[in-house]
Amino acid sequence: MIKNLSTNQKEWLEKKLKLINKNPIEIFSKLRLESSQRDFYRIFFSDKKTVILMIIPEGTDESVSLFTKKAEIFKENAVNVPIIFFENEKLGLIIVEDFGDEIYQFKLSDEKADLFYDLAIEELVKIQSIDLDKKVFDVFDNKKLLENWSLFEEFFLKLFLEDKVNDSSKKALKECYEKVCLNLANQPQVICHYDFECRNLIYMENKTGILDFQDALIGPIGLDPASLFKDLYFFWPKEKTAFWYKKYQKRVRKKLNLEIPTSKLVEYIDYCSIQRQFRILGKLSQVFIELNRTNRIKDFPTLFNYLINTSKIYNELSPISEILIPLKKILNERLANIS
To answer: What is the mean pLDDT of residues 202-222?
Structure first.
């Protein structure tokens, strides 16, 4: 049995697992940690069948019941998310279907890319076609956007880079960020997974499984495509991404009855990707500083390069690259000191 579970948690878990599978349990295997505060375990039964246990620690702002409700809505709209077998809000426990280990992050290749992205786009557009129910899905509004900026400013600029960015540069960055936010607010609004990236996608015999959708919200249409097409671990030729953009446009036209010109789609995705990179830098810096998790800070140079290269394309955002290019040296020195 898992350490640190309360007596009530252990009793509930044992009872529910017996309802799922009457065979004895052989192994509890802890799964990888990312930036989440949750813990994940794969539970192996003696007949080799498995389920996944999610543990949501007390005191976090994550809701078991809200996760369950979002899963239910996704299922109703044919989105391929895991079945929830049992959940307990009070105990912070959820037992879900095991989608396996064929995670995009580790299985994507040049040979498989077209198939994998085609399947991912299919699921993405299903998510975007879901009704905008504000009782279930928060809105990615100006308040949340400013919260994202505050994380970046406090945990990345001030604490991670040790406050080596002057006030005028901070002001210029924030002004650019506000222009990005305005663009996001003017995009068509849809349901967004919020982290539709390769580490949350699983290949499952000609379909894609979707994980970690607990933060799903109402936001700009370019947000999830930015996660998918501007992933931190895969860099594709422009002609390849242009091909996938066209596939996405076609599906959006058919499923959402929405026509987005190519130039506008590129802009939507670029602006969303810039906001996303700021957000991730802030969030991962917070995880490093508060939880001492170092496994994701290696991504910081990639995030920096994305911000620099994308902001160069748009005149109103050019100060971002002008400020960040000189900061690369400071960032690399900081990372070297940590490693």
So the answer is: 96
